[in-house]
């Protein structure tokens, strides 16, 4: 384009370039301005920023798994954690070689995933991770095995049907110091539902019961989640299982040793009354609420096993049903005269009913009561001249008030 000619006030023309005109108008493009110290132009700066943004977008996500890949003796008392930098987590799957899986949750930013429970001991785990942009990572680790373990042996037996007085009683093979941790790992539920509370009788025994006897027909489920629970320093549980038992009809038998009779009620109605003989004045029978914990058609009874020297040794006691750990039974008696029952208390502390040798005579009271009974049936003894049995002596926690029972729980 040619030069422009502009007249000045004297009428003379001056020759101006296009650049000069633009400068005079203050419209010189920024792109033509020079900057100091090697800085580029504004357009060049914008191009550099765009390049950096592309690099940031395409940077590969970095995944970290804890315990680390290849660990052979990983801790099993802490959760598994997966983190990512320069990205987000799309999916995390943790699978054990025992077929178990670990569920977990993400943080709000989906940069961290944490398992909802700890891994099991002695197990190999594979962790498969997918992060933003399709990044895939796989890690594997093996947890160490516990040095020492414990289990809980439970009563009643799985699938059994018991009387309404049967508690759920668990005896541990190792003393428990962290009672709260162990009790939290055990739940007992009932259908129909009822509040059930645990009570520690010792550091090796934990019983569960409702406030009153179970309702007839109740189904009880015991859930043991003791695997890798630390019962005491360095000693861990190994069980993870559910067992179910059932409650049958309601039978309550009351032994009055003043009248020397036992009245058997079922469903609130009297179904039988038997003459009995209890402990004599030197060997009084425990009083209180007792629960049948073992049943034997025939068994041997020796006085030496209950601290009574050599006073008796009977090899074939018929229809024996245990009421206490210390040796109280309700059982058949064939060696005493028939006239004793209902008239005198002559035993060494047991409750005896007339019976026949061999335990096969269905006409005698010992046989009849045995056949009508279940494990878990309640037998109440009164007017025996003896104090109430210790609640821990057998399955006899019903002798504790509900408030005292609750006070024995480690979980509040």
Please provide a written account of the structure.
This protein has helices at 18-24, 42-58, 179-184, 365-372, 402-407, and strands at 4-7, 13-16, 62-66, 81-85, 89-96, 101-102, 104-106, 112-115, 124-131, 135-142, 148-150, 152-155, 161-162, 168-172, 186-191, 197-202, 205-209, 219-225, 230-232, 235-237, 240-247, 251-256, 261-266, 269-275, 288-291, 294-302, 313-322, 329-333, 351-354, 378-382. The chain is built from 5 helices and 30 strands. 11% of the residues lie in helices and 39% in strands. By secondary structure, the protein is mainly beta.
CATH top-level class of the largest domain:
Mainly Beta
Fraction of residues in β-strands: 35-45%
Structural class: mainly beta
User: What would the CATH topology of the largest domain be?
Assistant: L,D-transpeptidase catalytic domain-like
Helical region count? 5
Mean pLDDT comes to 88
Give the total of domains: 3
Active site: 331 (proton donor/acceptor), 350 (nucleophile)
Pfam family, one: Big_10
Domain L,D-TPase catalytic: 251-382
Keywords: Acyltransferase, Cell shape, Cell wall biogenesis/degradation, Peptidoglycan synthesis, Transferase
Q: Characteristics of this structure?
A:
412 residues, mainly beta, Immunoglobulin-like, L,D-transpeptidase catalytic domain-like, 3 domains, five-stranded mixed β-sheet, four-stranded antiparallel β-sheet, 5 helices, disordered N terminus, Big_10, Ig-like domain-containing protein, LD-transpeptidase, cell shape, cell wall biogenesis/degradation
């Amino acid at each position: 384009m040619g030069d422009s000619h502009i007249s000045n006030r004297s009428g003379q023309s001056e020759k101006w370039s296009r650049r000069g005109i633009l400068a005079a108008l203050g419209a010189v493009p920024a792109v033509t301005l020079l900057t100091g110290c090697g800085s580029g132009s504004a357009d060049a700066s914008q191009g550099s920023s765009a390049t950096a943004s592309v690099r940031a977008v395409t940077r590969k996500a970095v995944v970290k798994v804890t315990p680390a890949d290849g660990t052979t003796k990983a801790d099993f008392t802490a959760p598994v954690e997966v983190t990512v930098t320069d990205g987000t987590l799309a999916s995390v799957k943790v699978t054990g070689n025992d077929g178990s899986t670990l569920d977990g949750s993400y943080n709000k930013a989906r940069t961290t995933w944490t398992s909802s429970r700890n891994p099991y001991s002695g197990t190999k785990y594979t962790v498969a991770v997918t992060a933003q942009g399709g990044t895939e990572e796989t890690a594997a680790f093996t947890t160490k095995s516990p040095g020492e373990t414990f289990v809980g042996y439970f009563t009643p037996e799985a699938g059994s049907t018991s009387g309404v007085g049967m508690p759920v009683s668990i005896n541990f093979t190792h003393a428990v110091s962290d009672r709260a941790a162990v009790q939290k790992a055990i739940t007992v539920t009932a259908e129909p539902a009822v509040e059930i509370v645990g009570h520690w009788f010792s550091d090796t025994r934990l019983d569960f019961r409702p406030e009153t006897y179970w309702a007839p027909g109740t189904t009880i489920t015991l859930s043991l989640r003791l695997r890798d629970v630390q019962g005491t320093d360095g000693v861990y549980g190994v069980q993870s299982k559910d067992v179910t038992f059932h409650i049958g009809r309601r039978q309550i038998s009351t032994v009055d040793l003043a009248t020397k009779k036992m009245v058997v009620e079922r469903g609130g109605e009297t179904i039988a009354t038997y003459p009995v003989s209890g402990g004599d004045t030197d060997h009084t029978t425990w009083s209180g609420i007792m629960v049948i914990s073992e049943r034997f058609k025939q068994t041997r009874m020796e006085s030496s096993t209950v601290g009574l020297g050599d006073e008796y040794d009977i090899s074939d006691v018929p229809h024996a049903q245990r009421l206490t750990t210390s040796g109280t039974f309700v059982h058949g008696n064939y060696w005493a005269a028939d006239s004793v029952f209902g008239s005198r208390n002559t035993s060494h502390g047991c409750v005896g009913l007339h019976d026949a040798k061999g335990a096969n005579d269905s006409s005698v009271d010992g046989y009849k009561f045995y056949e009508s009974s279940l494990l878990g049936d309640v037998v109440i003894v009164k007017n025996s001249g003896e104090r109430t049995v210790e609640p821990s002596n057998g399955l006899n926690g019903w002798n504790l008030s509900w408030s005292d029972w609750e006070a024995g729980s480690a979980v509040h």
